[in-house]
Amino acid sequence: METIRFDIDADGIATLTIDVPGQSMNVIGPDFLADLDAAITHIASEEGIKGAVIASGKDSGFMAGMDLKYFGSMLASADGQRPAPTAIFDNVFVLNQLFRRLETAGKPVACAIEGTCVGGGFELALACHRRFVGDSPKTQLGLPEILIGLFPGGGGSQRLPRIMGVQASLMYMLQGKLFRPAEAAMLKVVDGVVPQGTALAAAKDWVKANPTATTQPWDVKGFKVPGGAGGFNPAFVQTMAGALPMTLKQTQRNMNAPIALLSAVYEGITLPMDRAIRIESKYFAKVAADPQASNMIRTLFVNKQAAERGARRPKDEPKAPTTKLAMLGAGMMGAGIATVAAQAGMDVVLFDRDQAYAEKGKAHVEAVLAKRLGRGMTPEKMAATLARVTPTTDYAALAGADFVIEAVFEDVAIKAEVTKQVEAVLGADTIFGSNTSTLPITKLANAWSKPENFIGVHFFSPVEKMPLVEIILGEKTGPAAIAKALDFVAQIKKTPIVVHDSRGFYTSRSFGTYVQEGAELVGEGINPALIENAGKQLGMPTGPLAVSDEVSIELGVKIMTAAKKELGDAYVPQGSDDIMVKMVEADRLGRKNGKGWYDYPEGGKKHLSPVLGELFPRADAQPDVEEVKERLLYRQLIECARCFEEGVLETPEDGDIGAIFGWGFAPYTGGPFSHMDTVGIAHVVAVLDRLAAAHGPRFAPTAQLREMAANGATFYRPVPSRAAA
Q: In what order do the strands lie in the sheet with 13-18?
């Protein structure tokens, strides 16, 4: 066997040690399935084998899910067409039958879990008769498949409800929520939590002591699902009756996998396991056959992991970890960056023009850490992290820093002054990163003597929670700066994308169109509630007016005014410009002053302001929700396409990752470029032409899109040469 080491001890207990070669984490692929098949046959047929224990030979953990290269091969055929669900079913059911053979082999089988055990690895554990897990704060177990457009397809949707009850298991599976060891034991998902490193011994002891424990509870006559199940059980009926509308509301009817999961559980839970896993495989195959799943897997898992592992890092540059960070600006953004840097083990000098502001920034760090006490954070660890943050107003204190991040006021002159002061202390050989959301990096780099060492490092608020960092290359940014910035992002465990310089770069520029189109619609007299609901139904986290309030209408106007001043005649006015100015003139600045598109009554719930009807009279004829959704969607798509044509984006991978993790673009699509590929570039161009004719040139297709449509190209296949790269 290539992936499993098979040993039999003096007590007749077989140990199957999984160690998939060439993988940092054990994954399920064809070689593993073949080896597991052979191992099960050996266990079942060899009289001298009294039972078996399954463990991992890797320090990284027990096992993750399916090897996605293998899974991708299931979704591809020789002619490039997606196979029918029946073909996918045949492949997936092999896995289900194999796990079923394991639990019916006639020998007791225990699982020894040390470290991560998720997805298909956890489904393998569920097929064992007992599960023992080593106690570690880093250990996670569970079925997170829903987060990448799938649901448990290796028996998990049938075994987990039979172990912990339908309602509780659905809460975990529908959210992709993971268990910690103690939590898993409390819910009877594992049978024992033992000191770290002793799970194998505990599993062996159980097998030795229980030679006749060869049957799963659900295979025993009279078995009842915890909490009850079936159409005559009131609790089960109530759970399923409530789960469906809640799931539809949560997903806005956009996601395939959650509904398929509910169907698989509803139909399979009262059937014998052999029939139940067929039900599960049927629904899994249907979900997997839809492009939604492959788009989500590609962006949310494969490409995200590739980005985090340095896909865009210059290959020849030596590793350049940051040990001491000079953080300029102690506001919310600067304090947030200081927090994640200190948590990653860096010393942070938190600089501000006023000591009180600098101290306030450190207080923010303390408050964030305090909220994590008891959740992996100890008082000792908190004290050590805080000790690494030094608030100051003295530029001299920056001496020795090997990376600088600036997050001061969004003004070119102010940033330039601070930049020059820092260079006087650190020298121009230090890499300088600017956390600006809109100002061109090439222009800001003029204040640093060596612009090749100047780079944009755009964080998103709140820094502690938002996973993306947008790395922006100025015209002269060099490979050492790129490597330094990407190594820093890796240290703080964020996901990077790399883009080229442009006003607003990629994320702010493209996200802005969502807000702008919402304002345009209000200006046309469209019902604001219709606009907000359309945005949420589209799959965005919030409506365009709500997010505009959060970001600040006033800030948007300031950015627009600065762009007009900077660009002069080159500025392309938007219909939303006057609408946003009108809001600011009415002192409706956003949430910051308690009134924007919404009113924010003290102690009450926010609501769309009735004042909007006075400022922007309601049109007699209102569009349907699909028309509004289309405008909000395609206004974002065309801006993303422009960024690609202009060379702001080099790859569709960065575009999709940046959209979903940067501004919450509908995750079920896999991102704007995946979505355009899926619906077809010719279709995208036709819709844009129709919208441009009806609403103006902001919707006009790019020359590149027209060329791609004519040639049948897509973003994820070779495309025609860029017109403006």
A: 4-8, 13-18, 51-56, 109-113, 130-135, 192-195
Q: Determine contact, residues 551/590, Cβ cutoff 8 Å.
A: yes
Question: What are the CA-CA distances from residue 157 to residues 126, 130, 225, 228, 702 (Å)?
Answer: 11, 18, 13, 16, 45
CA 78 to chain CA centroid, nearest Å? 31
Count how many Cα atoms sit within 13 Å of the Cα of residue 382 in the half-sphere of its side chain: 18
Q: Structure tokens of 511?
A: 């996200």
Dihedral (CA of 629, 633, 636, 639) sign: negative
Q: What is the pLDDT of residue 375?
A: 81
| Residue 318 contacts residue 295 (beta carbons within 8 Å) | no
User: What whole-number distance in Å separates Cα of residue 710 and Cα of residue 340?
Assistant: 47
Cα gap 569→562, rounded to integer Å? 13
Sign, Cα dihedral of 504, 506, 507, 511: positive
458 is catalytic: yes
Mean pLDDT value of segment 195-205: 98
Residues 151 and 284: beta-carbon distance below 8 Å = yes
Other beta carbons within 10 angstroms of residue 200's beta carbon come to: 22
DSSP state of 299: I
Q: Any idea which residue has 């704060």 for tokens?
A: 137
Rounded distance between C-alpha atoms, residue 468 and residue 664, angstroms: 11
- Alpha-carbon span 43 to 32, nearest angstrom: 16
- List the structure tokens of 285: 């195959």
Backbone CA torsion sign across 141, 143, 148, 153: positive
Structure confidence at residue 724 (pLDDT)? 39
Helical H segments across 433-552, by residue range: 441-444, 479-491, 507-523, 528-538, 544-551
Q: Which helix (H) or strand (E) holds 625?
A: helix 625-645
Question: Is the pLDDT confidence value at 721 over 60?
Answer: no
Question: What average pLDDT does the segment 342-371 reach?
Answer: 97
pLDDT at residue number 563: 87
Report residue 673 as tokens.
């470029």
Distance CA 621, CA 524 (A): 10
Picking from 328, 376, 375, 377, the residue whose alpha carbon sits closest to that of residue 350 is 328
Question: Beta strand 431-434 with 454-459: parallel, antiparallel or unpaired?
Answer: parallel
Residues 239-245: contacts with CB under 8 Å, at least 24 apart = 239/166, 239/167, 239/170, 240/166, 240/265, 240/266, 243/170, 243/174
C-alpha pair distances (Å), 220 with each of 14, 104, 213, 337: 25, 12, 12, 55
The single residue of 129, 458, 500, 675 carrying the catalytic annotation is: 458
The CB-side HSE value for 474 (13 A sphere, CA atoms) comes to 27
Percentage, residues of the chain above pLDDT 70: 98
- Rounded to whole angstroms, how far apart are CA atoms 46 and 655? 55
Going by pLDDT thresholds of 50, 70 and 90, the confidence category of residue 722 is very low
Smallest CA-to-CA distance from 473 within 654, 677, 225 is with: 654
pLDDT in tens, 504-520: 899 999 999 999 999 99
